[in-house]
Every structure is written in structure tokens, then in C-alpha cells.
Amino acid sequence: MPIVQRGQVGRKPSGGMYVQCRSKRKFELGRNPSLTKIGEKKLRVLDTKSSTPKAKLLVAKVANLFDPKTKTYSKTAIKIVTANPANRHYVRQNIITKGTIIETDKGKARVTSRPGQHGAVNAVLV
User: Fold this and answer.
1) Does residue 13 lie within any of the structural domains?
2) pTM of the model
3) What is the pLDDT at residue 2?
4) Could you tell me if residue 27 is inside a domain?
């Protein structure tokens, strides 16, 4: 059964249930999370409803790091995931999501992008 992202769910204001009166549409289709890990870069490009494709980053090795003191960007290697507010079990599995604290060559950094949606890991030094 496909994952449905949108659709009428729940109850009417009167308390009655919504009845599904049509089949699922392609634009309502959802997908499993990409769960970006650390390793050699692996990218999956998906077709979307619009003309722009969506890049899902499955495995990442490098992060685009912003240093707020010097206001410069640099590419640095990702060593390990130290904290993840999305799920505490993601730290053991080295899964990168938005808000994750990663250890890089230049120190600890917080991920500001969504790797499963944007196709890149952008981070800011903490």
C-alpha cells in the first residue's frame, strides 16, 4: 500500500466520519524518509509534479560549512554525528537530519539544510 501524504482525515464538525469517495492520486503520494548517513556520496534524483527534480541525499561525506566569525564557507569532511534532536537513536546510526550536531574537521556544527530534500548538507559552526 502506498504512503499517502495528503487527503481528508478525521471527523466532520458534526462528528461524522469522512467517506473516501475517490481513489488515491499520484500527487498525494508520499515516500519513505531518506535517512542520510555518513560515507561516500550517493544521490537519488526523483521526478516531481513541477518541472524541477528533487535530489534525495542518501549518503554524505562532505558538509558545506559556514563560519559565522569569518563569514566564509568551506567544504569539510563529516566525522560523526554527536546529537540529533529528531531522534536519539539516529546518533548511533549516524543519520543526518536538519538540526543534527555533527563533528567536522573544524569543530562541531549544526545542520541547517534538509539533506533528504535538498541533496546537500549545509551546516553552521556552533
Assistant:
1) no
2) 0.80
3) 67
4) no
